[in-house]
Batch of 4 targets.
Target 1
Amino acid sequence: MSAIRSSSPAIPLSRAPAARRPAETGWSRVLRRFRANPLSMLGALIVAFFVIVALLAPFLARPTERNPYMIPHSGYSSDPHPPGPGHPFGTTEEQFDLFYGVIWGTRTAFLVALTVVATAVVIALALGSLSGYFGGAWDELVMRVTDVFLAFPGLILAVVIVAVLGQSVRNAVIAIAVVEWPTYTRLLRGEFLRVRDLEYVQAAQALGSGSLRIILRHVIPNTVYPMLILASLNMGGIVITFAALSFLGLGAPPGYADWGQLINLSHNWIAGTAGDPFTFWYTLIVPGTAIFLFVLGWNLLGDTFRDIFDPRLQGSR
Amino acid sequence: MAAFILRRLFLLPLVALGVSMLVFALLQFLTPAMRASLYIHDPKQLGALPEIIQKYHLDQPAYVQYWDWLMRVAHGDLGWSETAREPVADAIRGFFPATLELGIYSFVCILAFGIWLGTQSAVHKDHLIDHLSRFTSISGASLPTFVWGLLLLMVFYGHFGWFPPGRLSLGADLFVRSGKFHWYTGLITVDALLNRQGWIFWDALRHLVLPVATLTYFLTAVLVRITRSSMLETLRTDYVRTAQAKGLARRVVVDKHARRNALIPVITLASLLFVGLLSGVVITETVFNYPGIGRWGVGASQQLDIPAVTGFALIFAALLVVGNLCADVLYALVDPRIRLQ
């Protein structure tokens, strides 16, 4: 993947007279693309909505426990209760409030995804620059290690790591970061290889800049867009993996405000009662909708970023 | 061609070795006493933990331990699984056919459905079927497997009662375990037919419908997208236009000329598909209570059954490595440009 710098003037791709179209700056081009595609707008709106929910969580659902991420529960009655006064989305088994769980679950989703991406990017910056800029034996070593990590199906590796480290939110985040870093490292290494031999880097070398300065000032800024695309396409996947771990009983503990954990609590209530098979629909539909919308928003946004910043992929969908 | 396959085959043990090192490195997070459980075959041995730690050098440097462990794994000795209550190797042998059966049916459905839908949506670009398939692939990529699986259960088991979870109903299960049923392959649908027990076959099939539908929905999403874009590109090429210009029927052009070439990039996706299938199987088996390796591995992870988790990791990694090899070989077989290199 490569990106064009958005600060460079747009190159007219068509042979039509370009006179009528004024030279656009990067951001106006981005905005125009967004307006052109309704799905992009939808994605941006959904993500913006979740950002607001996450920011306003303490006002939307007032925490009562010492740890706001633990869902308050009224009583220990085992049957879920349908939406009603006090519980706008109903309650799960053991009376965890679904509304509270969904609202604070948004924070969990953002925290988990951003932490994983940040960790993966830091590892990628360190290893990818070593490997791509200096090459040689380092490159060989780092690439073979990523091969080994990529030889594991991601979820399986995450399950094994959590099994060894113990079940907790922190360990689940570590596990997902371990699964994700090779992808980022390989991307960054590729970008380093591409940028390393460009004229302006040679010029910087000729001017006597040290390796560190070249990497920090000249190479890394040019790898931002591919990273941004990968990260935005990856946000949904990370949240799904985390929810899957929680669903499998290997992520967030029971009662933690996390969508996957709430869905896990609905597992026993799928069949409903004899007369009404959909008695407990809300236990699955409420957290299921939250995670679906979140991931959908990021997928649409990621696709848009890719289309905007990576001209080679345009129209390939 | 032979050289290409040989080269891939040569890489296989190297990756396998790397994977074993990774698993072993993870085990180093455990205390020696917990690692000792890898070498226990009988719960009675638990009293002799210190001797076991001594005997297998668990207090020695990591490379000594790694060599010891690797040799035992190479001999198929993976320790005792507390959750399965049998040696790990036996447990894998017992659970694997169920997972294989689920995988085979899903794989066939994914390929058939995905390629059909991808082709249709490319041929009828911007028509109803194209919009439907794009909607399917976007929503398929955004809905987690377990939510979709639970939804299917809610409707088709909770409401209609057609497709129950599990692998067999109680009656069928009792019959299969009795001496009257002979196991040939471990795949119930195949064995039922070989035993001429139509009702067992039917029962097993009913249990397979929902898990297979779940996996198909997810993995088709990726396949449809790739097939569609690859078909669109191929349909624009000169030789396809020539075929159309000389008056061939549309179907012949699409099926014989365009799709064959369009499928080449799809094969590169096969290994990605395989990864998705392996991860998907773990979740699907848990959702549908299907007694395969995935559900066993998850149960073992929850209950700190470390030998089982190790075996589970090794078998899935091995499957993926072999799957990738198959995809590479297939790619070389299909695309002459690679064969000639």
Target 2
Amino acid sequence: MDRRTLLKGFAGAGTLAATGRLTAPALAQGTAARTLRFVPQANLANFDPIWGTQYVVRNASAMVWDTLYGMDEKLEPQRQMVEAEEVSADGLTWTFRLRPGLKFHDGEPVLARDVAASLERWTARDQMGLLIRAIQQELTAADDRTVKWVLKKPFPKMLLALGKISTPIAFIMPERLAKTDPFKQISEYVGSGPMRFVKDEWVPGAKAAFERFPDYAPRSEPGSWLAGGKRMLAERVEWVVMPDPATAGAALQSGEIDWWENPISDLVPLLRKNRNVAVDIADPLGNIGAFRMNHLYPPFNDVRARRAVLMAMSQEDYMRAIVGDDDNLWKPLPGFFTPGTPLYTDEGGEILKGPRKLDAAKKLLAESGYAGQPVTCLVAQDQPITKAQGDVTADLLKRLGMNVDFAAIDWGTVGARRAMKTPPGQGGWQMFHTWHSGADCINPAVAIGVRASGDKAWFGWPDVPEVEAQVTAWYEAKTPDEEKAAIGRLNKAALDDVVYAPTGFFLGYQAWRKNVSGVVKGPLPFFWGVAKSA
Amino acid sequence: MTSAPPGIAVAPELPELLPAVNFGRGAVGFLRRHPAVAVGGTLLLFMLLIAVFAPYLGTVDPTALATARRTRPPSAEHWFGTDMLGRDLYSRVIYGARVSLLVGFSVAAFASVIGLAIGLVAGFVRWADAVLMRVMDGLMSIPPILLAVALMALTRGSVGNVILAITIAEIPRVSRLVRSVVLSLREQPYVDAAVAAGTRTPMIILRHILPNTIAPMTVQATYICASAMIIEAILSFIGAGTPPITPSWGNIMAEGRALWQVKPFIVFFPAVFLSLTVLSVNLLGDGWRDALDPRMAKGL
Amino acid sequence: MLAYVVRRVIATVPVMAVVAFFVFSLLYIAPGDPAAVIAGDQATPADVERIRQSLGLDRPFLIRFGEWVWQILHGDLGTSIFTNLPVTAMMAQRFEPTLSLMVITLTFAVGVAVPIGVLAAWKAGTWIDRVIMAFAIFGFSVPVFVIAYLLAFVFALELEWLPVQGYTPLAEGIWPWFENLILPAIALGCVYIALIARTTRAAMLEVLQQDYIRTARAKGIGQGGILFVHALKNASVPIVTVIGIGVALLIGGAVVTESVFAIPGLGRLTVDAILRRDYPLIQGLVLLFSFVYVLVNLLVDLSYTLLDPRIRY
């Protein structure tokens, strides 16, 4: 008997949980033992995956709502709620037939009406969805189990759009919820996914509870990311928000939690030493660090200044700042697409390869006409990734001889300021840091960062017609080779003009107690197939 | 007790008329009778010297990155080890003294001066008193940390803003102290006599009020200094403090907090320095207050 | 007496009005608003503007302020921008953990500080006095989170006597509830102990000089009786005062403790809300804190009448 249990005995405590270490809740011992306690990457502050597009909201939503198609490990969309689909010969009419027996958590069956309403709401907020909306003729429920989507022009990547992992995912909600304005939140969290959200127990910012939905009918295929059968083995999943990573590490070691989504890499050796804890890579698609320069104002409106920065920057510095000493966790990235995926290319990436050329960079910077004016860098201090990158950038720019105006603010303020097109010095900015999940960089449809359509582009507003031409070429490509060729040219054009500066490709770990089985690698934590033994 | 509003009894009620501090056999004798002042003062002086002479104490550039050598334990090359970006911790801690001491002293000075002004106005000008004290009450009712976080979110992280935020949170206490002294002194016969004789208010303040406020204010100032240094550390802990390009003990600890179990030295050294400095200021304040209190001066 | 209480309660209104106005103005001026965060990375500026409008954040200051005041007077603190839950519900959820932490911390702090302060005063000038005061000052000088980490490391990780983190509601058992709060309360209490012990010692010293103490001694009353019955009672006014002040300080320290020990309390909620710019939630919480502060001050002042019969309102 360990000391804690002894002490509790002396204090005349109540029941002991099976592990002997838990404080004993009033729930039966069995339930406590089958509750999976998970520490998410961030606080689950709100829970509408169409309205709020943070990754953590998506991850929680994937338990509660289901999708028409789901992406599998091979990045292919597979049928999930759909039994069969049909596209007309001219590519304009899509017909989807739902699987029988799909139910919402309130007992109502899932009908085509619900699907149509959900897709309407989703297309109002999603990039690919907006493209579809622009060419939409009509979206109707032909009967209770059939949805018909008629377009004015063909959209070959329809299944990809419906099954993708990048936010917002096309989750299917009951019609009454889907009718909520896409710019307002839903107030009920009813879905048809394998878990039910227990709203009464939700303490936003601290705890969220999910219970297995017994009437969920999983597909017969084996589960693979968001595709296949989602069989829930745990009765209950509890999300416990822990703001202090050291505490999360300690809690995992002591058994107070079962699964930690993203332990910091410096703590991983300690966790590995614990014989009750297993550690592995979390998401093979990883993340791509980035900083974006403002193409509208000096000094970075001149491509030479931007290229100077790229010449001098060391992706190794950025990556080590983010992931630490573990070399397994990062790769240099001479491009914009996720390593390990079909569209990865390093074409045009010479500027980021090889030894760093600080002197040549300084010369190039001088040629661009930089005369010592302050460079405003927005650095969010409350996001570890941007905070680490910010420090490296400050050092880089100083070594280049630039005058750094370091704005240490918070992520919310970055979000507001980066949208401002005013000149720096009047509330504008010249550089900000961010990162993209690897899943969001697998192709130009989801990689908003690489688009260079000037005013319509992402913050920084790069304007490179060649990049946009290649994006169109990719959309219209008919074979994988054509796609790869277009992407290669895109990569080169984007790097030549420095649409943004990729700081590297990095991975993270996840850690869990050894009595938890079925934890897989993926772009989000998948709770089906995960079981906890005593 | 009804004359003195509650809320200022961090230092106990001092009598209205203070005798001069008994220095006895010179400064040395004073220090021997008040070891708290001696110890506290010496320690604080030591920290001040470290801060001032930082570049000459074997330090390197505290912002120089070397990511290949991150989180190394203390060694001959890096006396305190390196932090998460490979920066030399010894240098960062030594330079950090500058920020922490600057924050502590600045806040104490500004809060005292502004609080003095507000307290004097409140004490002398009846109608302003009600308004000012309600505003001060309002400010005091917001927990200082939260006020500071909000002010930091309003602007951006920098030493100046940290000082501003903490100063605003500390002003109410000083103003209440000064006001209570003014109010109680105004009833004194000799002050009445001065007013009757036509002495202008500024003279009254200078001659009668100020000498009696200086003593409790200096004691209060030391507490504010200590409190400001701790609040700076907590602000950095929450992520609303000075950004790491300017090292402060608070932000060094905040960066290393996730690793305290594996690399405790990152938190340990700044913690020791901060604690010793705050300790020294507290000792100084306590000792000084004891020295001023005539009953303690009787050598109990 | 009743008139006094009523007068004091009425006097809180202008204070809270000042606080409300101040906080509202601060948030209004602050750059960055939740709309950008909510809209997410993919949103266009038009999207962000739409969200801003649907949240009512684009209207002028006075209209928003007036509307908020009107709501408060009807007992409605508004709805959180991020969670869509009523602010009152969100505060109610987090109230118990913070209150529990405060109560246990205060009990622990007072329970340790007052006796050691009395002891220090009794043995004033001796080494016992010096040691006690040094120890107390030390607790005041080390930042809360350092103490918290040390405690967690020694007692939770190494010795495994106590849980590392978390909070168990009282409804699930007294010992589990208490167990989770022991380490946080000690960490938070250390700061407080110094403050109270110092004041206790100073107040006791002043009282112990008084003539009536000498009279009591002459009458043959034992040391314990003198210290605790006669002296402490008369010294209690400043002690209770400093306890009252400390409540505001405690909330600041609670933010740190709640973070380190993962306690879902009001401190953490407030910091999260501020960083996310969840305006209605921030405003509601600050009003709550100022109300608590005012209430505590009122209770402290009322307690004077019990402790010192010379004080009458």
Target 3
Amino acid sequence: MLLTGLTAPPKTHIVEIRGMEFHPAVLTVAVGDSIVWINRDIVPHTATAGGATNWDTGQLVQGQMGRYVARRASVARYVCTFHPTMHGKVIIH
Amino acid sequence: MLAIAVTLAITAVLQAQSPVSAPAPDLSDPEVAHVAVTANNIDIDMAKLVPTHTRNAAVRQFATTMITDHTAVNAQAAALTTRLGVTPKDNAVSQSLQSDAAQARSSLEPLHGRAFDRGYIDREVAYHQAVLDAIDKLLIPTTENAELRKLLVAVRPAVAAHLEHAKHVRRQLGAPARTGK
């Protein structure tokens, strides 16, 4: 069959930051997919992960977006560095 | 209008009318806007004390966030009032907030290091709790303009997050080995 061996094209997943929370708070993606955080709040936020994944969108003001491309399988927990009560998780497989 | 920090002043106003009968103070929309901006400015000014009074990283980071967030909310409030043609109007609640803030500032200014950390964070916990109460019981119910009310509603989660952040820092300060300036 012609499709044999083809992999699914990478997807873009959106995480909205609103009401001082990440929506969705837990996201499952595939290696190669992109995750885009959009800040809908009045106050600035970040989406920042340490450890092996180690990404940081930097400061996102209202309406601004930050992107991360998932490079390898892992489970990444991330926070907003300005607001320690905000947590999210990305499962990359 | 974020951290509408209606401090003890607003708490006092709210408590004074608690038993059923007394209605909330009747603030006009320009007065609500003034209270909001005042509350934000008070918390910004208090946070500006921090860099010269402590080296505690958690306290300094909290203060930086207060300045950033309250400044962002005030910018939004200013844009909204300009668009609506509303001029914020001074009022008794704003004046009480300013008076209370002046007292708090004089108590904190002579302190440094751990004593400052404790005093500042305790006040931030009380302040943000009072602000939340004020948003819920005074400002949102009083506001007539839908867009101004929407802004207050949008700001509320940030105030709640600031309160939890302040409580988190206060728990950290409880650790015996932590040092300040």
Target 4
Amino acid sequence: MNAATTPTPRLAIKGMRKVYPAVIANDGVDLTVMPGEIHAVVGENGAGKSTLMKAIYGVIRPDEGEIRWEGEHVNITSPGQARELGIGMVFQHFSLFETLTVAQNVALALPGKFDLAGLSRRIIEVSERYGLPIDPRRLVHALSVGERQRVEIIRCLLQNPRLLILDEPTSVLTPQAVRKLFETLRKLASEGCSILYISHKLDEIQELCHTATILRAGKVTGTCSPAQETPKTLARMMIGEDLPVIHHGEPAEGGEVRLRIDGLTQATGDPFGVNLRDIHLEVRSGEIVGIAGVSGNGQQELLKAISGEETLHDRRAVQMCGVPVGRLNPARRRSLGMCFVPEERLGRGAVPRLSLTENILLTAYRKGMLVSGMIRFGAARRFAEECIRRFDVKCGGPGSEAKSLSGGNLQKFIVGREIMQDPKLLVLAQPTWGVDVGAASFIRRSLLDLRNAGTAVLVISEELDELFEICDRLVVIAKGTLSPTKVTSETGVEEIGIWMSGMWPDSVVAGDTTHVA
Amino acid sequence: MWLKFEQRTEPSPLMSYLSPAIAVGLMLVSGMALFYVLGRNPFAGFKIFFLNPVKDWYGVSELLLKATPLMLCAVGLSVGFRANVWNIGAEGQFLMGALAAGGVALHFPDSTSPFLLPGMVLAGALGGMAWAAIPAWLRTRFNANEILTSLMLVYVAQLVVSWLVHGPWKDPEGFNFPQTQMFQAKALLPVLVEGNRVNVALFIGMGALLIAWVFMNRSFLGFQMKVAGQAENAGRYAGFSSKRTIWLGMLAGGALAGIAGMSEVAGPVGQITEHISPGYGFAAMIVAFVGRLTPIGIFFSSLLLALLYVGGEQVQQHMQLPSAISNVFQGMLLFFLLASDVFINFRLRRLARRQ
Amino acid sequence: MGLELLTSILFATVMAGTPLIIAGLGELVTEKAGVLNLGVEGMMSVGAVAAFAVAFFTHNYFLAILAGMGAGMAISMLFAVAALTLMANQVACGLALSIFGVGLAAFVGKPLESMSLKAGTPIAIPLLEKIPVLGPALFQQQSLVYFSWVLLAAVAWFLYRSKPGLVLRAVGEAPVAAHAIGYPVVRIRYLAVLFGGAMAGVAGAFMVVFYTPLWVEGMIAGRGWISIALVVFATWRPLRVLVGAYLFGGCMIAQMFVQASGVELNVPSQWLSSLPYLATILVLVLISRNRSNIRLNSPASLGQPFLPDV
């Protein structure tokens, strides 16, 4: 094969390097994407995938490295320039403006004159062609997460991209919606568009992608054809060892009810929020119950009702260990034995600028750290040191600031702080989101140990794999209502996926599924 | 893009201490430039503004006298500011405290009770607290922004003072000047050293600093307020009452500003007039920021801003410049501090040139 | 007698409300971009002093207004650098600007305090001025009054019908998203702050050149702060700024109402003077009670510093 017949890569990156004060995000990364190719960029959280994509899209400037676009050397200095070259990006955390309409959001990403009517026509045209139905006049805040992703994709498609980058697109979708997305992507690829698909979900990559580049700790550890690999071999390239296996064990039978939610109906005070309707749930000691659901279906509101960050009119709607707690604030609920790990680490689960010792005081102060209203810093520090040791938190000691820890280590610290309070009930939201594989597996094992010791555990998560791995029973939340419970071993990803669209038997939201997912 | 700010991994403790010093230095340099532009000798200006006031013991005592109300107001404000409770109405709370204490003094013009003065201190604190309670209540009950409500009340307080000294409380033997009677000797704060004007309010101020230090650094309530100020959602997650934080933040500021007001009318002024405060309530905010919202820092910064006040008076006397020059220096100082604070959390870095 | 009185009250209300409209619209644009600039009082003060000085020495009122605009813009740069480039706390920066601006104006304006200006000539709009009551009240005003109405229309059109206005609103709502799309967030915010400073300067100029043709320390008397409250009251919508401004303007001339109506109220003048401030508090309470309303209309990133990830 001579040079004349070798096709030019659409995108070729050599030696990309980006250094931040605390970490080397990309270290000598090479990447080659051919026209019409669906190319996966694989790596666990923190491997450097997002940084690489931001550099390609012109959001950040790399410190070293060469980018060639269709054979020509380029310097991509801004997203506008990237768009002009023909690169489109669908962000993981959407770059949409909630108080504006779909059409206005799209207009913001397009250069040129301002013609909302003509733009709306083009939006409808593109959305029909690729199977992504959306109404241009709707306000973004009223859209479901899946619909918002469609807006992001359409926004890119309107500029006839030759390279489309998708950053973790399926973390917000039901299994069925994922399949629909794959159809769209295959259609695009067949028209000659190259696709960069960032993900850590090995089974999806096997299903969809032609080639894969694997990143670990900022370096490329290999390239391959996913179809010729197994999840095991891919995992080994991704994390350097086998994926940890967790022994699920058996839940306890007939433990006492630690959390009872009884007819919880709560209108949200947030104009962008979801109302909760007639929620019933029980969590017993010695079991792990999981709540699955697509983001934006009432998880936040339900969590706040359980934790006490939102108090309820009906004090009996939530009961902990038999005590009606609806009117109690989080501190009072903690005194009854509740502990809670929230979704946001920095700013909610921990205060970024305070030390780990001080962050212990946030929830664990009852453990002998207060005397007549004054703080015993020695006791707090010892607690922090113990937490760091037991939960393998890599940090600069109990005096280091919370924000100096990596996501995985901070999550281990927060989970550890809550577990060390010997809770009767532990509630967790997205416990391993954004956390590296090692830490994620450690946290899941800790939860199983806790369950075996008799604690009642409630996990709310958007990651079905995680829920199937650790939960004894599953329930789905959609549009603020809860499905019936299912024992995990008696159901599967397909069924739960359908339920995530609100379509379980006798569902009151079944007819109204357009905006769920 | 040749220089850019890059976030540090940990805030620099060195810059925490250096930053106020740099700000003061920049203020001095700008001040001297200002003198030059106004056609005055910059070095003479520097000497008269900054050195004259402290050249003798009387000058030092005047400095401490002026620093006392600043110290009191600022430490009260800092309790709130640390918790993100923005009490901008300290000036009004100062005036109401002065009125409350003065009211007690005027009501008992012949009393010889040893409880008169402590009663006035208490009245001052209560008066300031009452005025601060209004924005606190409006915020907790109606979600009304406390910056604007507390500030509007400053203007109202000034009008109340004006009305009282022009009307009901006017001294009948005062030749129709807008002022009250002079307070009797038992209603005045005792002076510390004969011949100087600095009085026991200084001890009240230092006591307040000490109590504030213990509260902020060792008490759980102080910790809760610190969390509320830094991460509101974390405070809610922990179950710390945000209402309590707001009330405490506002009332602490009000009480201490009220005591400061009392110390002014029961001290050097000795009566209530329309001009009992040269803007102490606002200067105290600068004292609080320059003092890094810590009691020790506030002690030093209150001395610094007192120097700016006294220096301004000196400059007016000896160089025929309006005493409003103090306000110019105060504003400059705050701006320079805010500017140099950036280096605590960020460092400047040269960007590598793209190849 | 009655109609003449009504006309003069309306006239005075419009005059009193005009600086609030102009400064309020400037602050509205600034806040729509996500920046909370509390220094309006300081910017109005220096604008006033600059305008007065130029008016006194050149007798050219147009130049005076330009000078006021320029002074407001110049001093707002201090705030912009501190809050946007150096990422200092916006509330503290705004306070610093207010204190510094008011102090600087008092200092620079001392020699001007005993001077007076010739009153400005009003401009009558033909035909419209003949309407009974409303005609003389609305259409025989100073030029800046008409400017305030044109400004309202221009700001409304800019924000809701133009692309740059859409970009500005996007920046105020989600600066990180705007940055990811490629918009220069910091530069846009600088422009918004400068516009706010310019308008505050013009409002200050109006105070000394047309409203009361003299300069005295502290004559802005809280109007800058009231303008900020006005933006909240208007839930960040331009037309409501006008309505609120005239309401407050009415409060400010309450004394005139009372005297002119002939009612023998033995009310001390200070009580009447406190009306605008009390009205501001009342209005803030009424508007803020509905937290959901505030959340829907206020720019989501208001007051938060923005650090671009480059």
